[in-house]
Hints:
The chain is α+β, with helices and mostly antiparallel strands. The chain has 2 helices and 10 strands; from the N terminus they run βαββββββββαβ. It has one domain (6-127): Sandwich (Jelly Rolls), CATH 2.60.120.10. 16% of the residues lie in helices and 38% in strands. The strands form 2 sheets. A 6-stranded mixed β-sheet has the order 2-9-4-7-1-10. Strands 3-8-5-6 form a 4-stranded antiparallel β-sheet, with no helix packed on it. It is globular. It starts with 5 loop residues before the first strand and ends in an 8-residue tail after the last strand.
Amino acid sequence: xxxxxxxxxxxVGSWSSINDVLLQQVNNLFxxxxxxxxxxxxxxxxxxxxxxxxxxxxxxxxxxxxxRIFIHLTNWEPGHFYCINSQIHTNWSAGDVYEFDxxxxxxxxxxxxxxxxxxxxxxxxxxxxxxxxLARLKxxxxxxxxxxxxxx
Length: 152
């Protein structure tokens, strides 16, 4: 089974200082209900073998409403990769936003490079506001991440 990872757009901002305020600000943009934030820092020589996430506990009656979003917080470097089913994912840059159909796929990752690879995982239930933000992100391709009311 082949499955593609989908680029949703790019969050433009400073990723040099990652802190709880920044992570919460990014989480708030996507308006996922009952969301969780996971900061995935993969050190050189670390490997995560293929896994299939079961996220149905977010919404047992309607698991298709659960979305996981990946935001790369560091630029891709040689040796960094994700494998989603049979597709290798590389060449991202900091701020790139991706999703994949977690219901139908497994993924693995490895850091065979010399620098940390950092990704923010947001998981939660999609809302009307989430769909609006994602539609605008896809339409405009970028969102300027600033501490103000609107950055379009």
